[in-house]
Amino acid sequence: LESYVAFPAQFGTVELGSDNFEFDQPRSQGTISKSIEVEVENSGDRDLDFSSLQVSSSQFDVETVSSPDTIDAQSTGEVRVTVTASTSLDEGDYSFDGTARASDASISNGDLDDTLEVEHATELTVSSSSASAGDIPIGEAGTAGVSVSERLGYNRITGVEMDLIDGQSDWIDVTSSPAGSLSAGSSSTVGYEIQFPPAADIGNEYT
To answer: Beta strand pairing status for 157-158 and 31-42?
Structure first.
């Protein structure tokens, strides 16, 4: 004769499925939203009929998008929530509290007590992958330029350098470029001067 003790359905660990919230959209848009999973454990030996999850934070708006009807015994269910924040938030850790409830009122609620770290992303963009100077007579100088920007508006970029990776270095001079850094959300023009030597082939297109 064999027997074992079976525990009723009960909430175990309730925690955010992500540790960080990256601000990867421009500060100028005002708010940023992301979908995050909340992991809800049933530590009992019987299936748990799930009812609801309510999550709150002083700095974020949280809305439940989807949740399971049942969480299997000794398993974890996933509740998907949409988290919205103001893009003016500083980097750092922010607290989230929540309560998970079962359909059976006799089952004790599960508690969420977790943090989410806000991280500000940085994105360097160039207005074009190429700059055209048009037709340039030999002996005369032509100019071209591209705009370099920090797109998101959170972080300053330092150590900005412009290097020629293709083309004739003795035909091209950089006449203007960022002075080593770009402020958050700012742009700067990189200017070029192109002057062909007498040895250049007339009518050829150079890149």
So the answer is: unpaired
pLDDT, tens digit (0-9, with 9 covering 90-100), for 44-67: 999 999 999 999 999 999 999 999
**pLDDT per residue as tens digits for the range 100-159:** 999 999 999 999 999 999 999 999 998 876 666 667 767 777 777 788 899 999 999 988
Residue with tokens 């938030």: 89
Give the separation between CA 79 and CA 110, rounded to whole angstroms: 13
3-state secondary structure 26-93: CHHHCEEEEEEEEEEEECCCCCEEEEEEEEECCCEEEEEEECCCEECCCEEEEEEEEEEEECCCCCEE
Residue 29's contacts (CB-CB under 8 Å, 6 or more residues apart) are 87
pTM score over 0.70: yes
Say if residues 39 and 70 touch (Cβ distance below 8 Å). no
Reported residue count of the chain is 207
Angstrom distance (rounded) from CA 200 to CA 138:
8
